[in-house]
Amino acid sequence: MESFSARGDSFRKAAMASGKSLEALNLTLLRKWSSSQAAFCAGALETAKQWTRNFAQHQALPDLFDAQRKLLVDYNARCLTAARENTDLLLATREDYQSWFEQGYQFFTAQAQDVTVKPVASRKGV
Q: Which DSSP state fits 2?
């Protein structure tokens, strides 16, 4: 049976490793998500620029409305694409988080079972 100190050291090392693993998962997700959001924001900025250019380029009201409608359709497609990419990203990382959680749960369950007090057989008649 391990000493209390050795068990604590083992627990601390496992907790640190688990924390570093979670940090890596979070960092990977943040990098991918921020890259996706940066691309979406750049597209939104370009759409805003084109929206203002449309006022200078189209003098007739029907032409302006048609240009703005096309711009709106394009922007809507970009929004849906960004939503799909984010959903796919979250679904892909969900499995990684689930695996991380299960590994931690199994380790800490095993640790708890090791220190659980086992019943001692009682002596009859005493």
A: -
* Residues 89, 33 contacting (CB under 8 angstroms): yes
Contact status, residue 61 vs residue 117, Cβ threshold 8 Å: no
Chain-centre distance for alpha carbon 3: 38
For the record, the structure tokens of 71 come out as 């711009």
Give per-residue pLDDT as tens, 10-46. Answer: 778 888 888 898 899 999 999 999 988 998 899 899 9
| pTM score above 0.85 | no
Alpha carbon separation from 108 to 3, 14, 38, 104 (Å, rounded): 17, 9, 39, 6
